[in-house]
Amino acid sequence: MKVMHVMAGADTGGAENIFLESVVGLADAGVDQYVVTRPNNDFRLQTFGKLSIPVSVANFHTYLRGATNKAIASSIERFKPDVIEYWMGRAGTFAPARSQARNVAWYGGYYKLSRFKHCDWHVGLTPDLLRHIVEQGVPDDHATIIHTYADFLNAKPTARSTLDTPADRPVFLALARLHVKKGLDVLLDALRDVPEAYCWIAGDGPIRKELEAQARLNGIEDRVRFLGWRDDRDRLLAACDIVAFPSRYEPFGTVTVDAWAAKKPLIAAASQGPGAFVKDGENGLLIPINDVEALTTAMQRMINEPDLRARCVAGGTRSFNELFTKEVFNRDSLAFYERVKAYADNKEGVTASA
Prior knowledge:
It is a single chain. By secondary structure, the protein is an alpha/beta fold. 42% of the residues lie in helices and 16% in strands. The protein is built from 13 helices and 13 strands. Strands 3-2-1-4-5-6-7 form a seven-stranded parallel β-sheet, with helices on both faces. It has a six-stranded parallel β-sheet with strand order 10-9-8-11-12-13, with helices on both faces. α6 (184-191) crosses α11 and α9 (254-261) packs across α12.
């Protein structure tokens, strides 16, 4: 099986992590792969290099499209993939019509079908994303869910001393882009009334200064650590006590899977993605969006109720093992790719003989 990936993502982000880890997981399964992407993240490029996965770089400019079109076309000609997966909407706009039968659209959000007009196949992360895809006119048998995965076995915890954090205080970890959608302002307001707790915020984004100012205004700046973007979230997860995920808007939310994989209790706001998978009191605590009081109460409960923490971890582990392991991801991905390949081979064979 030969799979080519086309990714025009940001420097960092949750979808970008899913893309990277999907390529790594497929490499473990022996899939022959090729990547076309932006040269905007050295960690991703170095990871592909270590796995001997060839990479072509392109700028994916919205208007000056010629160079990117040429890079994709030459990569297809050289690699001759069985399947070509376009990660997110921008990449999808570059999918060439001549390979439409092999083109797969990957939805990390509620993208318009027009972005993937030359893709015959469509993949979503959640039941609601699948609904969105089908309601736009994609046939049921050309759309599917393939869950992401996490693999944090044997992660070595980050030393709390390196983050100026006492060893004996409860630590909440938020993995998020610093954007208003992520609800980190709600977390900082809740932390004000949980005086024993520290908080690590791993991510970067446009509202960092505003969040730092809010921490100072709330008088909690001595208990909050803004860590910037981190490529070692496995180590941060291993070192924290509880994961906080207060997003206002989240089509899926890899943080849910990350917390379960790391066997950490999870508090999540009931946005689209977490609301589909987190069962309150069973595999995490699910709170209303934008509710500081509910988040404060949930944080206090997780600190003070060890039985609740244990129950949420056990439930999260069950949910993880059912849907989000690397083995499940590879099984479902390869079965789907075989369907795409058989369809494309048949269709292109008919065309060639006409």
